Amino acid sequence: MLTHTWQVWATYVVLAVSLSEEQALKQACPSCDATQSCNCSSMGLDFIPSGLTDKITLLDLARNRIKHIRAHDLQQAVNLRTLLLQSNKISSIDEDSFVSLGKLELLDLSNNRLAHLSPGWFDHLVSLQHLHIHGNCYSDLGESSPFSSLRNLSSLHLGNPQFSTIRQGNFDGITLLDQLWIEGSNLSVYEPGSLKSIKKINHMIISIRRVDLFSAIVHDLLHSAIWLEIREIAFNIAEEIQLLSVLSLSFAKKISFKQVLLTDATVPGIVTILEKMPRLVEVEMKDCRLLGTGRWDLEIQANQSQSLRVLTIEKLSIEEFYLFTDLQAVLDLLSLFTKITVENTKVFLVPCSLSKQLLSLEYLDLSANLLGDQSLEHSACPGGWPLLQTLNLSQNSLSDFKMTAKSLSHLRNLILLDISQNNFGEIPDVCEWPANLKYLNLSRTQIPKLTACIPSTLEVLDISANNLKEFNLHLPFLKELYLAKNQLKALPDATSIPNLVALSIRGNKLNSFSKEELESFKKMELLDASANNFICSCEFLSFIQHQAGIGQMLVGWPEGYICDSPLAVRGAQVGAVHLSLMECHRSLVVSLICAVVFLAILILVAIGYKYHAVWYMRMTWAWLRAKRKPKRAPPKDICYDAFVSYSENDSNWVENVMVQELEQACPPFRLCLHKRDFVPGKWIVDNIIDSIEKSHKTLFVLSEHFVQSEWCKYELDFSHFRLFDENNDAAILILLEPIQSQAIPKRFCKLRKIMNTKTYLEWPREEEQQEMFWENLKVALKS
């Protein structure tokens, strides 16, 4: 029995601890609740949160303040596949921290403060495929390989500005990598043979500054690197190029130069080396600089590489590009190229002699350059680019549409032409085009109207983002038409484009189309008419839903447009849509709503007129003004000794007795009476407020009639706001007849309070006591 009790107690303790840890995890990382992915990034964490369970497969702890990874932090996360710890302050990791992560596939420890790498960290990561350890503080990888147990490793990214040494054996255990990226801008020691243990690297990226070390690395990669990418190195000394001669023996199929510096003195040697590479197919240059004008000191020895086919140059900076030569020295190297891209490099002319040498060229991209109408005519001279099929001239300086067409008309094999984002404007009625042109991109070219200048052989036409108001071309072979972001108010005429399969007319000004219009597109399979001004109706939707093949048709109205319905999801299938009453009968519903609103306004006006709502609003405004004014007026503004508040039923006593007694006294008192002293034509409430403000005291003549008078209540209220509180005596109460406090209406709550807290004068019926009453009143008025 005792043993059983202890077992129950132990189970309870374990469950309690587990629940408390899960609660702590939810507080530290709310996204972990009931999910397999925990996004705890940028939450200011100093430690890996406790309570991680075997349900979690992704844990993102990036951009926190974690400094140390403890052995028990990840002990329960046995099913973790992705662990992101980049951009923390990690400087130490316990040896057994990752021992339970046998299923981990991606580990990112980049941009931390690790001063050394321990092989023990990775011993149990048998499933690891991607490891990022760059941006730390280590200067080397240790005496042996920290990666020897990572048999499934696919990509490795290492290095940092302090990384200086690579030793033999540092990569032992790795035989195959998809990508190896070494950031070695300050690498000073490379022991030959350090990378020879890797038999194949699909993509090798090396950021390095010393040409001699780069040469030594290339020597170890002659037969293993398929794509070699070189970054942040300067080839500016001709003598150093001899060190690169080993590159000519490389089996690499692609060479990329990124952020590399070249000069006229080094280009010839590099080109010669590349020409000798036996399997090189593609050369790529991005964000590089060339110091020179193409007047190369050495003659390039052209060996006519039989494998090189692709050249890509993007954002090549040539400071004196306007002085660049016609590249006669490299003409013999170009005849076998099939694909050339020279993008965003300030090209303003391709010499005719060079164009004629591109005998095998099928693809040419000269986008984002400075080609004009005259220079294009010279570049595309007769005999140039004889096999060209695809030409991209977008984002240049072309403006003459007819001249552009004529310059390219001799390209018999040209199928696809992109001349978008030029500034053509008006186009002529007749143009001469390549005979086999099938794809034409004229988007964003400022064309206001289409003419017969557009070639009739087209199968695909993109005329998006212009100022078109109509489309009336006859294109019998057209299959795809893109008319987005124009000013069209109707669908194109289907008889002019009988073979159309796909139409994009989104972002125009269509508000409807008829059944006959849809039926006329016999082969239509895809229609994108989103972002238009469609007016939804049940009839409109009904006939669309019942068209033949309509299940293939997409019609959408994004949120925010006139038609706000289930069709609001762009590309929703119309067949699944059901409109609400509002969408089916919009006009009727809007009319009913307007009628109800108008009737409600009329009722409110009638009620307000009957119950004097405007008057009550003015009274409320007057009260608010009275409460906000200062409690005491300046002495210069005081005109009366007292303002007299009384009921009209008590006017005989007030006017014939009290006024006579006080105004004929010596010295006389000046009283303010509403009958005599109110300003004619002024609103009565304003008269009351002004009279109280201009009086030194306020005299209230209380009687049964007073407490029944609404105006007396207002005068009492305004007097309360303006002239007294519990600590002053600006109000004088005269009890003309006995009043029981219980008889005072509840709306005279202020009067109840005053009578309970202040002394008042009671008018005596006996004449011998009246003399004393007047004396007391005069003393009160003088105080």
Automatic annotation (TrEMBL):
PANTHER family per the UniProt record, alphabetical: TOLL-LIKE RECEPTOR, TOLL-LIKE RECEPTOR 2
Transmembrane regions listed in the UniProt entry: 588-609
Pfam families: LRR_8 (PF13855), TIR (PF01582)
UniProt lineage: Eukaryota, Metazoa, Chordata, Craniata, Vertebrata
GO molecular function, one term: triacyl lipopeptide binding
Alphabetical list of InterPro entries matching this protein: Cys-rich_flank_reg_C, EF_Hand_1_Ca_BS, Leu-rich_rpt, Leu-rich_rpt_typical-subtyp, LRR_dom_sf, TIR_dom, Toll-like_receptor, Toll_tir_struct_dom_sf
Name the record gives this protein: Toll-like receptor 2
Residue pairs linked by disulfide bridges in the UniProt entry: 32-38, 352-381, 431-453
Superkingdom assignment: Eukaryota
Subcellular localization, as worded in the UniProt entry: Membrane
One annotated GO biological process: toll-like receptor signaling pathway
Subunit note: Binds MYD88 (via TIR domain).
Signal peptide as annotated in the record: 1-16
GO cellular component, one term: receptor complex
Recorded family membership: Belongs to the Toll-like receptor family.
Protein's job: Cooperates with LY96 to mediate the innate immune response to bacterial lipoproteins and other microbial cell wall components. Cooperates with TLR1 or TLR6 to mediate the innate immune response to bacterial lipoproteins or lipopeptides. Acts via MYD88 and TRAF6, leading to NF-kappa-B activation, cytokine secretion and the inflammatory response.
Entry keywords, A to Z: Disulfide bond, Glycoprotein, Immunity, Inflammatory response, Innate immunity, Leucine-rich repeat, Membrane, NAD, Receptor, Repeat, Signal, Transmembrane, Transmembrane helix
Annotated membrane topology: Single-pass type I membrane protein
Domain called TIR: residue spans: 638-781
